[in-house]
User: Which sequence fits this backbone?
């Protein structure tokens, strides 16, 4: 009898190998794929309330689509640290930085739970990074490199109400294309919430997308 394995997207835990392969193939057309979601990116970044000269961690930065609006807020003296485990995606981010001549942008081609971060930043953004949000170790590592009281914003897909099945069909199809685990899609921010205080979660797109905001508590956290 042939033993059939479950697909990565049906597993409870994120699959790093599958994610690397998936985003390697998507790197060339990624910016176009996310064009529809750009207003959500702008909204998420505005909630960081960044000021000139501050530093921000862009966790799962992809091709660097958040860099321009982040740089506009932190200015020439501010710092952006982009963390992206897929080399092909980060190459696109590097090209973006070079094309704009930005200074103060540090790129790390590493997984979020192993990134060689230094110091403590003023804010962090997790924009459509479901797999990372389902890894307590990754979130804990990022939080260790934030100042107490740092602002944190996360956005991404989530299941809408059960009876809104056309919306959930969209969530399912988008998730199958972009994440390696469906675990936690009812409350994708639930692990992050254990690290933050003053957590606020709002939804848009008929409940299919969340925006979660909060501040890093600064306390030790058991993973």
Assistant:
């Amino acid at each position: 009898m042939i033993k059939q394995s479950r697909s990565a997207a049906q597993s409870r835990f994120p699959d790093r190998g599958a994610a690397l392969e998936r985003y390697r193939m998507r790197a060339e057309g990624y910016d176009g794929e996310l064009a529809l979601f750009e207003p959500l990116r702008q909204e998420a970044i505005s909630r960081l309330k960044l000021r000139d000269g501050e530093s921000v961690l862009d966790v799962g930065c992809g091709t660097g689509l958040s860099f321009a609006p982040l740089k506009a807020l932190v200015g020439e003296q501010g710092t952006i640290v982009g963390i992206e485990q897929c080399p092909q995606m980060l190459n696109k981010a590097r090209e973006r930085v070079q094309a704009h001549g930005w200074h103060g942008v540090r790129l790390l081609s590493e997984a979020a739970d192993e990134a060689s971060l230094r110091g403590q930043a003023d804010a962090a953004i997790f924009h459509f990074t479901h797999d990372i949000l389902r890894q307590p170790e990754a979130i804990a590592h990022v939080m260790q490199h934030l100042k107490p009281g740092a602002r944190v914003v996360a956005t991404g897909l989530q299941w809408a109400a059960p009876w809104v099945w056309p919306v959930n069909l969209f969530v399912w199809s988008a998730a199958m294309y972009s994440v390696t685990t469906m675990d936690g899609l009812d409350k994708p921010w639930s692990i992050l919430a254990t690290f933050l205080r003053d957590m606020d979660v709002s939804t848009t797109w008929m409940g299919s997308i969340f925006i979660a905001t909060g501040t890093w508590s600064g306390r030790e956290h058991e993973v």
Notes: The longest strand covers residues 146-157. The chain has nine helices and seven strands.
